[in-house]
Design goal:
Elements (H helix, E strand, L loop, with lengths): L9 H25 L13 H7 L2 H34 L5 H13 L2 H11 L5 H4 L2 H26 L3 H10 L4 H12 L1 H17 L2 H5 L5 H11 L1 H39 L1
């Protein structure tokens, strides 16, 4: 008996085409803009703007800082929120509405207000923390990413039976850490990857906090190029888009490989 393939409604195709055009048309317009140059006598289409970006030392320096900050923020957030949300779902379910309310605070408080408060709060802390992006900016970005981390991880925990998995793991002699990292975390891998993607995108594009705290990150460099040079700014925007998506794809591939390896081991056991 042949399986009947599900038919696709014409309206669905139309909406898919509209959604595709919504993303592709601006990218194409930016690409076309990035191929132009102000100088007289140069060809209408040139890759010199991309060459200028690639050979610019500030581009690589700032994007390295922002990417390391993104990885640091993701690591700190996962280490902080995964055990906390696990404990809340397992033993303190009444605290979940409190955490959900606290997660909404970064949405309510504007970044410009938050950074001023953080600058005053952390004033007097050691120089390695207050004057370095790895300390102050990472702390601010963890707070900024709190809503995305919490709601993504909370959805992941709510989709699994935390109590049954914990009891089964501990009945086999596993410790709390073993249960958390080898039983619970693989089951919320998709939620953790989703939260990591959102955090990466936030950190790579955050401008206000870095600007007011006088740290030279990639969005600051992008804004400077936008104000001083128009056509190279288009090339820089496209390259930053590709690099961000490449980083997200790398996280996705790493997560899938680890998940597949864990599934194979579990099946053998």
């Amino acid at each position: 008996m042949r399986m009947r393939r599900p038919s696709i409604a014409p309206s669905a195709v139309v909406w898919l085409l509209i959604a595709g055009a919504y993303f592709i048309v601006p990218l194409y317009a930016t690409f076309d803009f990035s191929l132009k140059k102000n100088q007289v006598g140069t060809p209408c289409c040139t890759l010199s703007n991309y060459s200028w970006v690639i050979h610019n030392g500030d581009f690589w320096h700032t994007i390295k800082i922002s990417f390391i900050l993104a990885l640091e923020t993701i690591l700190i957030s996962l280490l902080l929120f995964v055990p906390t949300i696990y404990l809340v779902h397992l033993k303190l379910p009444k605290l979940r509405p409190v955490l959900a309310f606290m997660a909404l605070v970064p949405f309510v408080v504007p970044p410009i207000v938050m950074v001023v408060g953080l600058l005053k709060t952390f004033k007097g802390t050691p120089h390695w923390f207050y004057a370095e992006p790895w300390g102050f900016l990472a702390t601010a970005y963890v707070i900024l990413a709190f809503p995305y981390m919490f709601f993504s991880l909370d959805a992941g925990f709510r989709s699994i039976d935390v109590h049954t998995l914990t009891e089964a793991s501990q009945s086999l002699g596993a410790s709390w850490l073993t249960t958390l990292f080898k039983v619970i975390l693989p089951n919320i891998r998709t939620a953790a990857l989703g939260a990591s993607f959102l955090t990466l995108a936030i950190v790579m594009g955050e401008f206000t906090i870095a600007n007011l705290s006088a740290f030279h990150t990639f969005p600051i460099f992008l804004q400077y190029v936008n104000e001083s040079q128009g056509f190279p700014a288009g090339a820089l925007t496209l390259l930053s888009f590709l690099i961000t998506w490449g980083a997200m794809l790398s996280l996705l591939l790493v997560g899938r490989k680890r998940g597949a390896r864990g599934a194979v081991i579990a099946g053998v056991r």
